[in-house]
Amino acid sequence: MLDVALPALDYVIAEARQHGIRLLLSLVNNLHAYGGKTQYVKWAWQEGVGLSSSNDSFFYDPSIRSYFKNYVKTILTRKNTITGIEYRHDPIIFGWELINEPRCITDPSGDTLQDWIEEMSAFVKSIDKNHLVTVGLEGFYGPNDPKRLTANPPEEWASRLGSDFIRNSKISNIDFTSVHIYPDHWFHKQEFEVYMKFVSKWMLSHIEDGDNVLKKPVLFSEYGLSDTIKNFSMSDREKMYRTILDITYKSAKKNRSGAGALVWQFLVGGMNEFIDDFGMVPWDRSSAYSIFIEQSCRLAKIKGLAQQEINFKQFC
Question: For a Cys staple, 88 with which of 65, 128, 197, 221, CB 3.0–4.6 Å?
Fold first, then answer.
């Protein structure tokens, strides 16, 4: 499996280098897509060493932790067959995400996931001190945080997932925080304007935490609006995009912690099999495309890059 996947990843990294794109690479998925933590549990169960068939045993089973560490070491120390550079030394890789959207529902106290993050972030840093590390959190406040009542999605479920934005992000080997924005998935049967009010409040709450509590950058590393919701329109999706990008820009302009926002997801033509209910080809809709060009240009101007980098000169 790795014999096929890793040469393909070599190619992606080499192409990113050619085009000046920095990469944030996720090391495992909490969800089933691409195998995720479920695959590790299956391997341990098939080998007769698994403690439990529960997906959450990924976080506490010693054998599975060992499997994961072996994989992480393989990735970090791999020499790219195209560039000849080990991943841990490659500046095109912006950072490592430990796990996409971690949840450990069997331990809502958060202790199990906290222990896993502490161990795995330290392990990554022991091999690679060159790159930034983030968790991959959705951003939910935990069971003991007062903000679970004021900033989390409605009802109590979001504080009972075993993750805790502040506690998880405070870990010393975590360099920046990650937050996702999916209001239509987190509470249903609401009007679009309700979603928009939540988005603004959600973002400003986490920027405030980055500034005053964590003293770390906050990356809104995924956001989107599903095209399966009732009365969906592209204009509403673009309105949400603009709101998120405006808040990010204002934070960056004031040198606050809101460090950036990454949309889920853009694809190129001919990739229909990979498009989900959030995906789009940006240049197929000029109004959406222009929103992201504008954001890139105004962020570049803050950093003085707009007149220096050839890519920015072309568009800005």
Answer: 128
